[in-house]
Write a structure and sequence with these properties.
The complex is a heterodimer. Chain A is an alpha+beta fold. Among the domains of chain A are: about 60 residues, MutS, DNA mismatch repair protein, domain I; about 55 residues, DNA polymerase, domain 1 (Orthogonal Bundle), CATH 1.10.150.20; about 160 residues, 2-Layer Sandwich (Dna Ligase, domain 1), CATH 3.30.1490. Helix content of chain A is about 40%, strand content about 20%. In chain A, the strands form four sheets. A five-stranded mixed sheet of chain A has the order 5-6-1-7-8. Chain A is globular. By secondary structure, chain B is of the alpha+beta class. Chain B folds into three domains: about 120 residues, DNA Polymerase III, subunit A, domain 2 (DNA Polymerase III, Chain A, domain 2), CATH 3.10.150; about 120 residues, Roll (DNA Polymerase III, Chain A, domain 2), CATH 3.10.150; about 110 residues, Roll (DNA Polymerase III, Chain A, domain 2). In chain B, about 20% of the residues lie in helices and about 40% in strands. In chain B, α1 runs antiparallel to α2 and α6 packs antiparallel against α7. Chain B is elongated. The chains are: A alpha+beta, B alpha+beta. At the A-B interface, loops of A face loops of B.
Chain lengths: ~400, ~375
């Protein structure tokens, strides 16, 4: 029986979509030679690995050196973030037609199916159709989990990976989570998992023996969430707009450089990319940090709070140059650099009375430049210091092809 | 010091002083209050004078009609003494001090309070009659109240955290803005004695608020004395001194537009009721309400995910082409709370330009719309 999706939050149906072995699958899709072989994408550490590689024990986050010990014949690729972005966009576009409200992340998305039963039928059918359409049109396999809340949907998906479809009927959330390992619960990382294991708490059902007070004493505020979660209840409100804590763009450089113009060029390019994302999310930022790593592996970092929240390049760049002066003080080449934005707020839709003419024009300018870049790629417009990268670094439709594009979102 | 005085006026003076006295401070004198008793002569009765300051602004207030047997000065903890007066019963209260210990006798209790040495109390400036400008108080309270709500609370926009107080010839103007809206009001009765002057200062809003509170029906004139960084305001019973806000108030005249071609007259009560209803379906995160002005009616609409939606209609005299704007309903409610005329004129241009609310020629409220649509 399909329950009505009420707006009171009771009858929700959340669908979780996860792209299997995301980067590695795309590489295998692009290059048929790689299919069926252990493929690892990453620089330094594994960003993603194919299921063939996982059989040898490789996991995301593992160092490449260790991965090669486990699986010496693995094929290691540096990957290209921009190519992957193309694929996710194509997948999200298909999913949006089925899921009226969607929250997307790097390789997963949540959608709310409430109120679509009359239109699409049973949620399980939506999952099946979605999987079929994505495979047909994009060529990638996805895992779909469906449940009454985000947590159950994601855990259901996890239980069915890869290329799976799992549906937890309404009212069976508690029973479903009971037999899952504790590490599957959101909020239980490796450290918490190890601690719980020491107490012989292995399955989610074991956690139910603990009282709210014990949870709180053990894990603080996070413990209270776990108390709810081990009973199949998600404490996170669905579709609350998620504001990231940081948005960063970082890269290693092709060859170490001490050239001030080139360093500035990289930083401006990275800042532009980050700010474009910030504007796309409708946010404003109040703090920026610059990170560099010298050739001798020493890292430096400097940050500053902005005078006022902004999403405009021109207000941020002078601060970035100041931070750069503070971190780039040695006559040693840099191998890595990045910008990190934080302290976000939702951009206030309230128009300003005393907005200077310049402010209004800058906002319009960036809206226009963003529109051009969305359509023709980032490199369609090159600004300021980043011009020094022209001709030095290969470009594709999405912008400069960086050696190690950061995958942080 | 030995004095007997009526309890109620002394209590009121303490309550006014509590607007100045901070609840806690590292400087003990700041949380205290200086009380000076002056004996009367002939037919004039004696009086008590209260002084308090937080070092940035302060108040001197006189409580007249006291029987002063022995003149003197005591410095008492403000909050505690205020509480004693509040809790006490009976008409009169008598104060009797020898050094730092003060005896307070009320009808049924007698307190002994430890105070401070008057020498430790910060110097309180007197009022310089010379160079002071008289201002008619007729509209002053109203002007303060009708602009105060628009003052910014953001410290980053320092110049906007006060009210602009301006004398243009014989006209008194008061302006407040938080960058999103602006309230402007003027009165033609500022300068007395026919002298024409010019003056432009930004006064912290708590100073203006205090001035509004100390004004009584008996006051006809407030004297204002300006120094480079300070202002002193004198009424019949009190003197307020305050630092001025050192900043550039933006050019407000430039943002009061004159080119609005759509004019709508609205009933204040009806508009206020509609705005309050629409606001019920907004949340802290989403405050947008769509205002659609069509022939003969105004429709308010808002929809918030997980809350719901509402449509409110109210009649207007509008005959022009349909226009749609989005506003934060709180900003309109704030204005309608203090705007007491039966009707209000709304002047509009397009969906992205400021709306101008007018009640008479003297009171103008400019409000920027939201850049989102509902």
């Amino acid at each position: 029986m399909v329950r009505d999706g009420g707006s009171d939050g009771v009858g929700r149906t959340i669908l979780h979509l996860d792209i299997d072995a995301f980067f590695a699958s795309i590489e295998q899709l692009k290059n048929p030679y790689l299919r069926g072989k252990p493929v690892i994408v990453g620089a330094g550490v594994i960003a993603s690995c194919s299921y063939e590689a996982r059989r040898y024990g490789c996991r995301a986050g593992m160092s490449l050196r260790q991965a090669l010990r486990l699986c010496p014949h693995a094929i290691i690729l540096e990957g290209n973030q921009h190519t992957y972005a193309c694929f996710t966009e194509a997948i999200w576009e298909i999913a949006r037609r089925w899921l009226p409200e969607m929250e997307t992340y790097l390789d997963e998305a949540y959608g709310d199916l409430a109120g679509t039963e009359k239109l699409f039928g049973h949620p399980r059918r939506v999952g099946e159709e979605l999987k079929r359409e994505i495979l047909e049109r994009v060529g990638l396999r996805v895992t779909v989990g469906i449940g009454a809340n985000r947590m159950v949907a994601k855990m259901a998906g996890k239980s069915a990976k890869p290329d799976g479809l799992a549906f937890v009927p309404w009212g069976e959330e508690e029973a479903f989570v009971a037999d899952r390992p504790v590490g599957d619960l959101p909020g239980v990382g490796p450290a918490t998992e190890a601690m719980l294991r020491e107490m012989n708490l292995l399955k989610v059902r074991d956690l139910r023996a603990l009282s709210r007070e014990v949870f709180k004493a053990m894990l603080g505020k996070n413990g209270l969430h776990l108390y709810e979660r081990c009973r199949g209840r998600d404490t996170r409100p669905v579709h609350e707009r998620e504001i990231p804590t940081t948005i960063s763009r970082e890269t290693s450089v092709h060859r170490p450089t001490g050239d001030a113009a080139e360093i500035r060029a990289f930083l401006q390019y990275l800042a532009e990319r980050a700010l474009r994302t910030i504007r796309k999310l409708g946010l404003v930022t109040r703090a920026v940090r610059v990170r560099v790593r010298y050739e001798d592996a020493r890292g430096e970092e400097a940050g500053q709070t902005l005078d006022r929240a902004t999403d405009v390049d021109e207000e941020v760049l002078p601060v970035i140059w100041k931070c750069l002066d503070r971190v780039f003080t040695r006559r040693v080449n840099l191998t890595h650099m990045g910008v990190v934005f934080s302290k976000f707020a939702v951009a206030d839709p309230q128009a300003e009375l005393f907005e200077t003419v310049r402010d209004a024009r800058l906002s319009r300018l960036h809206a226009a430049v963003d529109a051009i870049r969305d359509r023709f790629g980032h490199s369609a417009v090159t600004a300021g210091a980043s011009i020094a990268l022209l001709g030095k670094i290969h470009q594709d439709g999405y912008g400069y092809v960086l050696r190690c594009p950061s995958l942080t979102k | 010091m030995k004095a007997i005085t009526a309890r109620a006026p002394l209590h009121e003076a303490f309550q006014l002083a509590m607007n100045v006295v901070p609840p806690r401070s590292t400087i003990p004198a700041v949380t205290h209050l200086k009380l000076t008793a002056t004996a009367g002569s002939g037919k004039t009765p004696g009086h008590l004078e209260l002084a308090c300051t937080d070092l940035e602004f302060g108040l001197l207030i006189t409580v007249s009609g006291a029987q002063v047997k022995e003149e003197g000065t005591v410095v008492l903890p403000a909050a505690r003494m205020g509480a004693i007066l509040r809790e006490s019963e009976g008409e009169d209260v008598s104060l009797d001090s020898d050094g730092t210990l003060t005896h307070v006798h009320t009808s049924d209790a007698s307190f002994k309070i430890v105070g401070l040495d008057p020498a430790d109390f910060p110097a309180v400036p007197g009022f310089e009659e010379q160079g002071a400008i008289p201002i008619d108080t007729k509209d002053l309270s109203e002007m303060i109240r009708k602009t105060q709500f628009a003052v910014s609370s953001e410290v980053v926009r320092y110049a906007l955290t006060g009210q602009l107080f301006e004398i243009h010839g014989k006209e008194l103007r008061m302006v407040a803005s938080d960058g999103k809206r602006l309230a402007f009001i003027k009165s033609r009765t500022a300068g007395r004695g026919g002298e024409s002057r010019n003056l432009r200062v930004i006064v912290p809003t708590k100073t203006m608020n205090l001035l509004d509170r100390v004004l009584t029906d008996r006051d006809e004139t407030v004297w204002i004395h300006l120094e480079e960084t300070q202002v002193r305001l004198k009424t019949s019973r009190a003197m307020i001194f305050s630092r001025l806000i050192d900043g550039n108030f933006p050019d407000y005249e430039a943002v009061i537009p004159a080119d609005r071609d759509k004019k709508i007259t609205l009933n204040r009560e009806a508009l206020f009721a509609a705005v309050r209803k629409a606001a019920l379906m907004t949340t802290d995160k989403s405050r947008a309400v769509r205002f659609t002005f069509a022939k003969g009616k105004l429709t308010l609409f808002t929809r918030t995910a997980d809350v719901g939606e509402v449509t409110v209609e109210t009649p207007t005299d509008y005959e022009g082409e349909e226009i749609e704007l989005t506003f934060n309903p709180e900003y309109i409610a704030d204005y309608l709370k203090v705007m007491t005329d039966p009707s209000v004129e709304l002047h509009l241009k397009d969906r992205s330009s400021a709306a101008v609310f007018k009640a008479g020629k003297e009171y103008v409220y400019v409000l920027m719309p939201l850049t989102v649509s509902v």
